[in-house]
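Hello forum,

I keep getting stuck at the same step: I have a sequence, I want structure tokens, and every attempt I make locally crashes halfway through. Rather than fight my setup again tonight, could one of you with a working pipeline run this one for me? It's a single chain of 123 residues.
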Amino acid sequence: MSDKKVALFGWHPDVVNYDKWPGMSAEKLRAALEGDRDNLVSLGYDVVLHYIRDDETAFETATKALEGQGYDCVLIGAGVRRDEDHFLVFERLVNAAHMAAPDAAICFNTNPSDTAEAIKRWI
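Reply #2:
Ran it on my machine without issues. Output:
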């Protein structure tokens, strides 16, 4: 279907404060993120899942992951975007995508079940 390259960014399941996300666990988050990736691959996208581990290294991590890779779309997951305690991480990731992958579309999901729809809106 597609030869488009997609980068997914989300929190590493081992660093999330699950007190903020009742009913969620590292295992469930890992399964959801990997499920998103696998679903997109089944739709024909070339997908790489990138994990963010902390506020301080988010920009550098994303920049290194994106530079020169030819991504068509960068998705920043809802778990990064919706955590008010880490809004600066979201800002850093948007700017890393803008600078390191200037030709890539940037999109956002609301939860793991609508990641493919977010990607399809832009590529």
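The longest strand covers residues 5-11. If your local run keeps crashing, start a new thread with the error log.
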